[in-house]
């Protein structure tokens, strides 16, 4: 799940610092391989949630996270430390783009200095196949009803609970009211029933550009499967993976081709700019250069902080005559099987995912729904949703999570799949022929998946 | 070190003179042990930092496991190499790496040499020029890559400047025909000033008497450059050529930050692909096999460069 989590402007300094930390993690993660034989999936001392007791001696657990920046998660950790004075959580923030490399280095070497880490939901099966996750079925036997169903599904692999889901997500279509007004375009309604179509949004985007908008329509995550999967799904193209254990790429379908033709045309017709990396797209909307911006609700606080920016939100569009499909999924907490501090880690997992509605209550500007059902209620009371520019976001998010949210393809080969698709989306936006890009993606994925079949 | 000589017991008699051979052998031994002591740190570092990793790479390349798996890897002999050699993506990566290096290395050397010669000509404010040209090498590569990435965006400042003189928008990093050129530009912007400094040092080492003699013989500036400067600059030039080649073969940051090896694999150079396989796809075995291929490529090319410049020296 690709949630960039810098509600404040992402400064280069933060990025570089993050990079430095990641490198440091990489370095420390090296050379601690214990070299023992294949993993039993159980760290010593795993206890059922009801029987958990706080340690009597001080314990420090290491938690590598990519969902939140160190600043954002601080209040959660402070609350936890107050409640469990003998456990210290050492949070190591890793930039999302480097997260997979860092985890791969540390977990495949059975690094005992890593206890907990964020699990990007669609990668659950891949991590389980690699032996990176701990079976938590006995530790947390009754999650059903306490966390939302999609999150619970995403944290389950081979019928076992292997992670503690804590956050899910949805998407909105932001639009710049000033630019639409200038072009004489009526504002789209925020009701789920009035979902706009991509065709209509494209036409309006062009109109807005003729009236002076620099860009008509810019996707938040221009090259990421999370946000672009619904395009193909809306036209019945499927998730892109099928067959036995979802290990057969299915990208050369009419739905994929048609939706990617449309995606390619956005860039060819200069409605979207080429060559803008994901990290820079929200700034384009925040600075008032973009008419339509499909993006995460987590950008709400950033956009609302721009006093000059007048915007509104509508439902994430679908194609004309196609299905309404929206991105979803988020983060779980995984327990490293090599961890030597299972009990303290479990206590923190329980705190994040279950205790009194979970972590969300401590985060004053959380703009992404938690997985915990009790926590969700208080989440919708967040200050950001009181901003008139975010009017309708709450109903939309509730509706999407209940009706249109579609998980990403579930496969042990997800890492290679997502990686290849990122490059494919990028090639298509840069003008590669759609048919040849999808067929070369198919052969790349087939080659990578041979080892899993 | 003390050399104690053992005296055979003799009452008041002079010790017999030692045979000369033993003395020489002792001296030799002393020299050898001194040399060993002085060389040990360097040799230990070479073993730890160079040889052991190569052995590890060979070991990794001949094993396989599921990506990222915590299970011990299986021995598979040369399977990783056969898989690589039958992969179209790998050959395209080798091809792009070679094209890039064939273009970028001569270009950087020629530019660095031209600048070095220019800046040893007693121009006004030479120090300032040298500093300005060297500056990009002092900026971290990541920073340079990010800044160039923004500058070269299709809607970025470089295109704005081109538009003002009537050239329409160029794709740069987003066009498969221009990505290689764009990366050569970024790499050279960083590299040229750095290598220029070495060549300036080399130029300053050439005694002026040769130039005076050549001038008396009536040689013009071009002739002086060909017959005096180049032959006497051969050593620093060889070093710069080899070091530059190696550093461009292992260039990685601009692709990681700006292109992810795209568009359509046109900037997917071997070093980036090795990182990508090892860390992003958690497949160290394929990466190690690729690494050995890269190593062989580099050794062959550097050997050719040595041969060329040495034979020029002998002739």
UniProtKB/TrEMBL annotation, chain A:
PROSITE patterns: PROKAR_LIPOPROTEIN. The keyword Signal applies. One of its GO terms (biological process) is maltose transport. Gene3D superfamilies: Periplasmic binding protein-like II. It comes from the Bacteria. One of its GO terms (cellular component) is ATP-binding cassette (ABC) transporter complex, substrate-binding subunit-containing. Coiled coil: none annotated. Keywords: Signal, Transport. GO terms for molecular function: maltose binding. InterPro entries: SBP (IPR006059). Belongs to the bacterial solute-binding protein 1 family. This is Extracellular solute-binding protein.
Automatic annotation (TrEMBL), chain B:
The chain crosses the membrane at residues 28-52, 98-120, 132-151, 179-201, 237-258, 287-309. It is a multi-pass membrane protein. GO terms for biological process: transmembrane transport. It is found in: Cell inner membrane; Cell membrane. One of its GO terms (cellular component) is plasma membrane. Pfam families: BPD_transp_1. InterPro entries: MetI-like (IPR000515), MetI-like_sf (IPR035906), UgpAE/MalFG_permease (IPR050809). Its main location: membrane. The keyword Transport applies. Gene3D superfamilies: MetI-like (1.10.3720.10). The keyword Transmembrane helix applies. Residues 94-303 form the ABC transmembrane type-1 domain. Keywords: Cell inner membrane, Cell membrane, Membrane, Transmembrane, Transmembrane helix, Transport. The complex is composed of two ATP-binding proteins (UgpC), two transmembrane proteins (UgpA and UgpE) and a solute-binding protein (UgpB). Belongs to the binding-protein-dependent transport system permease family. This is sn-glycerol-3-phosphate transport system permease protein UgpA. It comes from Streptomyces liangshanensis.
